[in-house]
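Progress note, project year one: complex with nicotinamide-adenine-dinucleotide.
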Amino acid sequence: MKNISVIGAGTMGNGIAHVFAMKGYAVSLVDISETALEKALATISKNLDRMIAKEKISEGDKTSALNNITTYTDTKKGVANADLVVEAATENIELKLKIFKNLDEAAPEKAILATNTSSISITKIAAVTSRPEKVIGMHFMNPVPVMKLVEVIRGYATTDEVTKITMDLSKDLGKIPVEVNDYPGFVANRILMPMINEAIYTLYENVAGVEEIDTVMKLGMAHPMGPLQLADFIGLDVCLSILNVLYNGFGNPKYAPCPLLVNMVTAGKKGRKSGEGFYSYGHGTKDWIVAENFKK
Ligand code: NAD
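Model obtained:
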């Protein structure tokens, strides 16, 4: 494994490119948006500066990491020499199926095609390619340079060999991979999202307020962040879409998204990225206050 192509240069794509480039891999970072690519390089540079300030890496390490990254807006060119492609484009099933059809045609036959999807079936994505045995989930956590876990998801047809290569590669990045099977939500979101949904139901049924719910979970369960705030950070639209994947995938009403979550997303309150969710943001970089709707 030498040449890694990363498709999508957003929140996750830039982090994935960052960790591969730091380990000396040649990274082709692909996005349809030139602006997204410029922003990604600026973010990677800023994050590397932070590591220099903490004396974790040298200026030289930063220069070589940045030199290891080439950007492309043309997917065909960006994957022409790939040993591994990690797709981290927008979470939308039609888009991912289209991207994987194209990757299957454009990437070398030997290349492994991985996806960083949070919830879409690996087996479904693999089925649109002519190499389902080489398609796998490589689910990094946000922020990628910091978080240790990679959830490695085997699709129905993924081989032992491809799984082993992906596990070994994750270890080489300094991550801790965990192998799981391809069922809705995999492990991480199957457990996390019902907890977040239950926290929203607890608020909806007026059992307690936003800060009270988050404080109980932070101080009582030693969670670094309360579930409502975590939902805001993940994006309420993303939480809703993952809950729908669980609900539709298992056909079990226990996964039905709370009506309050549905209302908030419909009203455009998507959490931190939109400026408001359970909390209201933009009062300073690290400052947030309970959103107007939930003030007592
Ligand atoms: P994002 O919206 O920040 O970035 C997506 C990028 O994909 C954008 O820059 C967009 O221009 C690009 N894109 C769209 N169509 C493309 C195409 N055809 N070819 C190339 N690039 C294309 O999204 P994100 O938060 O980085 O999420 C990416 C993936 O990672 C999703 O599958 C998501 O579920 C998953 N994920 C996200 C998180 C998270 O916390 N944000 C965590 C784990 C996994």
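The chain has two domains: 3-181, 189-294.
The CA atoms of residues 119 and 185 lie 5 Å apart.
No further modelling is planned for this target in the current period.
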